[in-house]
Amino acid sequence: MKVIISAGGTGGHIYPALAIANKIKEKNKEAEILYIGTSDRMEKDIVPKAGYKFIGIKIKGLKRSISPKNIISAFLFLNAIKRCKKIIKDFKPDVVIGVGGYVSAPVVYSAHKLGIKCCIHEQNSSFGVTNKFASNFADKVFVSFKSLEEKMNDKKFIYTGNPCSENAIKCVAAKKEDFGLTSSKKLVLIVMGSLGSKTINDKMKSMLTLFNNKDYEVMFVTGKNYFDEYKKNKYTKNIKIVPYIDNMITLLKKTDCLVSRAGASTLSEISSLNIPSILVPSPYVTENHQYKNAMDLVSKEAAEIIEEKDLEGDILLRKVEKILNDSLYVRKMKSNLKSFEVKNSASKIYDEIIKLIGDEDVGNN
Predict the structure, then answer these.
(1) pLDDT tens digit string along 9-45?
(2) Which of 12, 229, 239, 338 is 20 to 30 A away from residue 83, measured at CA?
């Protein structure tokens, strides 16, 4: 079995792609996997470290406004198609899988033109520009949200969930003591992505004082670029400030209330682990997709939401303490989260790929 996987630009695309690659290798140790990404983004370092052969291509995304840079982007896209066709002809894959990011567009398009079976995975509750384009050339489209499958009303759109969810379920929970936390106290984890958010960080400097001397603990992850700004701030010992947490999913398993952005991978972890959450969608992302992601859960009473423009300390405090203190409310939220739970997402994607290839023996070598 020979597979090309393409995704790039952000961890929200790269880690689901690697979860699919890992599942293919788990099910078929003889499978050959080639990863095509951009030559100058984070995947060029992450993917080889994960043990996969990597080829980088030069490509840039289109600007949404009229810009001379789009001429360069169009030129690079055409060159990328030419390069991808050569790579595909040389590698001879059984299937090509696009997992988002503009690099995956020429890969899926080229494979389709060469008669290779293709599938894509969309992490968000609405299509990004790349996957909207690539879906026209894909034989199967895997989606993370049931609402998107229902909206498309087409058999090639298949609700699989986000493949990162399997990793979340399998990982071992952390010991709170390893993070300087108290095992007997409830934990509120506040994190706005690996890099943090300047807007949220500016607000949290004063807002955190409202949590002083509470009988629960609050851990705020600033992001590495903003941690130094907090060193001079004084909070009581129940509040912990850290720049970054490695393997954060292990601490999520010990979290009683999560306050976070509404990225697709985060929501897949919230759903698979049944974590009560307050979502603060980033308003700076393409087509406001984090708000749409969040509302998929909020509309089913599976999460709370505070838009960034409305984020104030008293609002956050009330919502946090409702989750910590109202057991019936939390039980209902966790029950509603189960409707978004897909425990075997990567396995479902693998099975659909094998059906697409049409040769059961290929998948069981």
Answers:
(1) 888 899 999 999 999 999 999 999 999 999 988 899 9
(2) 12
